[in-house]
Amino acid sequence: MPKKYISSLKTGEVVEDVFLVLKKEVKETREKKPYLNLQLADKTGSLEARKWDAAPHLCNSFHKDAFIKIKGVVETFNNTLQIRVNEISPVAEECVQMSDFVPSTEKDVSAMMSELRQIIKTIRDPYLSKLLDAFFTEESFCKVFSTAPAATQYHHAYLGGLLEHILSVARLAVSFSNLYPMIKRDLLLTGVILHDIGKTRELSYERSFHYTDEGQLTGHLISGVLMIYEKAQKIDGFPSDLLNVLFHLILSHHGEYEWGSPVKPGTPEAIALHHLDNLDAKVYAATKAITEHKDTSSSWTDYVKMFERRLYKK
After folding, report:
1. The whole model's pTM is what?
2. Is the Cβ–Cβ distance between 68 and 18 less than 8 Å?
3. Which residues form the HD domain (predicted)?
4. Could you tell me the fold of the domain covering 109-290?
């Protein structure tokens, strides 16, 4: 029987399929009876699920990030779909097709890497060109870079999402630099291409997406600067002032202290990078929130934390 994906489920439908457990909570009803509060996922999205009257042996039979086969019914609660689970059985990882559960970019990864490399070839500054080549001629880096997600949930949170995001911002930067010739094009493009490389160390993405120990301890801004420093030290004569300005682009690209930047953008290129990066992330997140909102009777999404408001869908 072909897998039934979450994105296709409808109210009243009987579900008997395997899902990845993103969240598992054991709670109690008002009558002190235990039940399971779950968030189940596949590559098309996630859905809340409840298993009432959950015996202790069932609660202990699987854990978060495990695969389970459920049998249940899709219901609507507060205008949102959820599953009332009747049966649960754990499933071994070797019995599942991982590509059914981990979301991936729908775009051609090889074509995106090729386009990004073509943009890199337009960099004329010899030091910035050598720096980018040091990263993008390294097979192990390119494999991780082209596989990693750009985030755990808000934007481009799927395999290949980091590459897709970087390429989108690079395209914006090419157009932007043509409109503003006073911008140092090579510096802006280098900052764009390298601004999120620390996410290759920050995020873990074997099943669901999590932060690594390095990601939680230092974050991708610091990791990115360290990665750039390691490469730059191997390039003879790399100017220290150019390296510091590039560090500034990486460290300031979130734009505000409360958004995680230790410094605010202080050069035209840093200001441009922050806004181009933010534009791509925010437009993607808004589009995602609208397309994934399941209440077709409403013209508005639910409250979206990133925007601190509901979004108009029509």
Report:
1. 0.79
2. yes
3. 162-282
4. Hypothetical protein af1432 (1.10.3210)
